[in-house]
Amino acid sequence: MSLQRMLKLLYALVLCVSANEDFDWTKNERGSFYYGTFPTGFSWGAGGSAYQTEGAWDKDGKGMSIWDVFAHKKGKIFLNDTADHSCEGYYKFKDDITLMKDMKFNHYRFSISWPRIFPNGIKADHINEKGIKYYDDLINMLLDNNITPIVTLYHWDLPQVLHEKYGGWQNASMVNYFNDFANLCFERFGDRVKYWITFNNPWSSAVEGYETGEHAPGLKLKGTGAYKAAHHIIKAHAKVWHTYDTQWRSKQKGLVGISLLADWGEPVDITNQRDIEAAERYVQFYMGWFATPIFNGDYPQVMKDYIGRKSAQQGLGTSRLPVFSSQEKTYIKGTCDFLGIGHFTTRYITQKNYPSGRGNSYFTDRDLVELVDPRWPDPGSEWLYSVPWGFRRLLNFVKTQYGNPMIYVTENGVSEKVQRCTDLCDEWRMQYFKDYINEMLKALKDGVNVKGYTAWSLLDKFEWDEGFSERFGLFYVDFLNKNKPRYPKASVQYYKRIISSNGFPNQREVESWRRKATETCSSSNQLLAADPLTSHMEMVTEIVVPTVCTLCILLAAVFLMFLLRGRF
Ligand code: NOJ
């Protein structure tokens, strides 16, 4: 099918679908707004992660992570940025909790930096008590403010030592090292933390870390690296779940889950069986890769079939997709008390054959092509198109595939590209939150078991290989100012209203929210515009004044010496 025909088909599809007012998701309903509220006790919050926000990369005994090292190499990150300081969350967490309190968050999602606790990755080596104290203080202050901590154990910052010594997630020994780290976290924090996420978005760690090399540790092991890393990550997840289950659950009464990221994949032509299967493959290779072993005991059949066939065609004796033994399958199956879902966008998918050969990769193994509708809004990151209806479909897919598990949405949000003039009036983000949260509400009405929602992210922060060029925050952070001040964007006011109404009460009220939010943001904009002046004044007091004083003292000393010489 030519690209032009495909696009035409796409437009026809979009048009015919937007005319349909039916509420049933299976009938492709898109666009209509549903007024209603969430169940009592629904949990609202926002999130961030250690490397993206903490800064203090070499302070108080912290060891290096693969991200510290990767970001310091030239040419890896946009403008060679690093998160050495980022939002300075390590020092400013009290201020941040005040922001959360004002927004009436029920929870806050953050991650623990493994090398801040075990600087060399290994328990036997050294436990960094200062690192423990930081997380203790953070957790205690959250609880004092009635904010539930949702804690991720691995948000991509593997201790560098483990990479150098063993090859990181390419090596099976990571399973035990990660288990030791998790076990210590349960021991030290588990009396207060009741929601644990083992891994954040392992798809990215595996594919971008070991297949494309765009992320740390930057390996390009095409066609094998990602599968191997994922295999060990899944085993590590299961081991940590069992550790909690056998050693801590009865005392601590918490839950252990995993957070998986997935785009939704929609067939380009919904009447074409090959496109339907390609779209399903897209989601199976994305989320199913991790979720199917954890919920159903093994990799998705379609992954085993495709990768197995292509490996055989390459002349390999075994599949590039590793195999779980039957014991392992039983051990891994059922190791999830709740499923975290990170979701940002959607793709149209069509079938495309990639002949197998030396260029095999995770991407060609799937035999498909991803497309986007050029009319989808894409305000920020290149990959992020706003397609709210895809969210409801993904949530329903999870419900049917994995036996309606308890779900927490662990990431959802939208970025903006850095502009020369900062705009705190983030219209498109309000629209994104409104529409995506509304689709989640529809999914709830469909019977999907969603318990909470985490806006991504609380603050603008380091956006991995994109550096600071993409801003996801509800709060704008001025990274040029040493104090990293935070400024609320309009979406703060908007999200606040969703939280206080626990949803969308009625049309009249919801429509007034946007107006009220934009009224406040224009005055904040002026404040921010004045900020360069403030930073300049700070520079005057902190650098110029001491320098001038030192010079004066020196001059006075020289003058005095001359005087004294003249006298004797
Ligand atoms: C998923 C990652 O988990 C998160 O760290 C990142 O900020 C978002 N994607 C947006 O790219």
From TrEMBL:
| Active site per UniProt | 411 (nucleophile)
Instruction: Tell me one GO biological process term.
Output: carbohydrate catabolic process
Keywords carried by this UniProt record: Glycosidase, Hydrolase, Membrane, Signal, Transmembrane, Transmembrane helix
- Judging by the UniProt lineage, the source's domain of life is Eukaryota
Which reaction(s) does its UniProt entry say it catalyses? a beta-D-glucosyl-(1<->1')-N-acylsphing-4-enine + H2O = an N-acylsphing-4-enine + D-glucose; a beta-D-galactosyl-(1<->1')-N-acylsphing-4-enine + H2O = an N-acylsphing-4-enine + D-galactose; Hydrolysis of terminal, non-reducing beta-D-glucosyl residues with release of beta-D-glucose; beta-D-glucosyl-(1<->1)-N-octadecanoylsphing-4-enine + H2O = N-octadecanoylsphing-4-enine + D-glucose
Where are the bilayer-spanning segments? 543-564
**Residues making up the signal peptide according to the UniProt record:** 1-19
Q: Main EC class of this protein?
A: hydrolase
Q: Which Gene Ontology molecular function entries are recorded, alphabetically?
A: beta-glucosidase activity; galactosylceramidase activity; glucosylceramidase activity
Its EC number is 3.2.1.21, 3.2.1.45, 3.2.1.46
Give the family this protein belongs to, as stated in its UniProt record. Answer: Belongs to the glycosyl hydrolase 1 family. Klotho subfamily.
The record, for PANTHER family, names:
GLYCOSYL HYDROLASE, LACTASE-LIKE PROTEIN
- Name-wise, this protein is Cytosolic beta-glucosidase
Species of origin reads: Oncorhynchus tshawytscha (Chinook salmon)
Q: Which gene encodes it?
A: LCTL
